[in-house]
Each structure stands twice: as structure tokens, then as C-alpha cells.
Automatic annotation (TrEMBL):
This is Phosphatidylserine decarboxylase proenzyme. It catalyses: a 1,2-diacyl-sn-glycero-3-phospho-L-serine + H(+) = a 1,2-diacyl-sn-glycero-3-phosphoethanolamine + CO2. It is found in: Cell membrane. Its main location: membrane. Is synthesized initially as an inactive proenzyme. Formation of the active enzyme involves a self-maturation process in which the active site pyruvoyl group is generated from an internal serine residue via an autocatalytic post-translational modification. Two non-identical subunits are generated from the proenzyme in this reaction, and the pyruvate is formed at the N-terminus of the alpha chain, which is derived from the carboxyl end of the proenzyme. Pathway: Phospholipid metabolism; phosphatidylethanolamine biosynthesis; phosphatidylethanolamine from CDP-diacylglycerol: step 2/2. Belongs to the phosphatidylserine decarboxylase family. PSD-A subfamily.
Length: 204
């Protein structure tokens, strides 16, 4: 939003000072792009026990088992291209127990090594019955991750929590017994698309 407004101000200044239509049109077009890019549509958040929603708009690239220091997990990767909505949302309700920002590279987010090497923020939410972690991972064009959460925050499923500017990816780590509701190649919407359902007997 700030980019768009700033460019509109530039357009007005250029128009008043030069009266040159072409020069005025450039910042106007750029302003229109940024206002469109940083759009933030409302979403209908699904209700029900154990539901995990997508933290981002994009395409599911992977849904696979991974080994972590906390045990086996299911990892779902959602890739965002430049045309997707880039506002991120909380996948589950609960208490934020970890917010960890790491500086890094800006490799193509489609590459698996980007999940480790790229700039990223890791967030963990304790639902009381289970934990869900997810990463905001910068991509080739992204140069800034915005995360509005802090440790101790109590959040609701589908709540807005930040954004990643330009192409990027999000990784979601689920308990091993999560029942998937998506598959690779499927397009999802942040806050409204159900990625998985976790049985209520699940534990950490």
C-alpha cells in the first residue's frame, strides 16, 4: 500500500511540474501494480476441530514425510508466484511458542535447498493438542519477510500474520498422523483452503 501511495504522489508531482503524459503514466502504472500486488482479500475461514488451513495462496509443490529433531513430520510446501496474494495467515489457532528469523540467501524458492539456505522466519503454534510449525521463506525476488507475531501471542486460525514480498514459499510441518486434504499440483488460498485435519487424539 505504501509503495502505491508513494508512486501516486510522484505521479502528481511529475504531472504538475512537467505536464508530460508519458512520464506521469509510468509512476501511475507502477502504483496500480503495487496496489494490486499487495491486495488483501477477505477469506471465509473453515471451522471444525483439527483443521489446518493454508498460510498462503499458491500451488502445493510437495506433501511428504520428513525427519526432524522432534520426530517424523509431514511437510507441505506451497509456492507463491508474483501473481498470488502475498498476505500470510495463521494455519491453526493456539499460542505462539516460537518466532525465529534467519538471514539467508535468495535462491529460487522452487529449489529444495531454499528451505534451509534462504532468508526465512519459522513460527510454531501450540494448539494445546498438537503443534504446527510453518516457515515464511523468501524467494528469488523477495527481499523482505514481514511477520507480525511474537512469542506468547494467542492467535486464531486464518488470522492475518504478515507477508512475503514477491515470489516466495511457505513450508508447513504437521504431526505425523495428520490426514492430508491436498496433493501436489493443487492450488490453495491462504486462510480458506484446508491442507489437513489432525485427529483430536494427536499429541505433540
Amino acid at each position: 500500500m505504501l509503495y502505491g501511495i508513494s508512486l501516486l504522489i510522484v505521479a502528481v508531482i511529475v504531472g504538475v511540474s512537467t505536464h508530460f503524459v508519458v512520464l506521469t503514466a509510468i509512476p501511475v502504472l507502477l502504483a496500480a501494480f503495487f496496489l494490486w500486488f499487495f491486495r488483501d482479500p477477505n477469506r471465509t475461514i473453515p471451522t471444525g476441530p483439527g483443521i489446518v488451513v493454508s498460510p498462503a495462496d499458491g500451488k502445493v509443490e510437495e506433501a511428504e514425510w520428513v525427519s526432524t529433531t522432534a520426530g517424523d513430520r509431514i511437510r507441505i510446501t506451497v509456492f507463491l508466484n508474483v501473481f498470488n496474494v502475498h498476505v500470510n495467515r495463521v494455519p491453526v489457532g493456539g499460542k505462539v511458542t516460537l518466532v525465529e528469523y534467519r538471514e539467508g540467501l535468495f535462491l529460487n524458492a522452487m529449489k529444495s535447498e531454499s528451505a534451509v539456505l534462504n532468508e526465512q522466519t519459522m513460527i510454531t503454534i501450540d494448539n494445546g493438542e498438537y503443534e504446527v510449525s510453518f516457515k515464511q521463506i523468501a524467494g528469488l525476488l523477495a527481499r523482505r519477510i514481514v511477520c507480525n507475531l511474537k512469542v506468547g501471542d494467542v492467535v486464531e486460525r486464518g488470522q492475518r500474520m504478515g507477508l512475503i514480498k514477491f515470489g516466495s514459499r511457505t513450508d508447513i510441518l504437521l504431526p505425523a498422523n495428520a490426514e492430508l486434504r491436498v496433493k501436489p499440483g493443487q492450488h490453495v488460498k491462504g486462510g480458506s483452503s484446508i491442507l489437513a485435519v489432525i485427529p483430536q487424539e494427536s499429541s505433540h
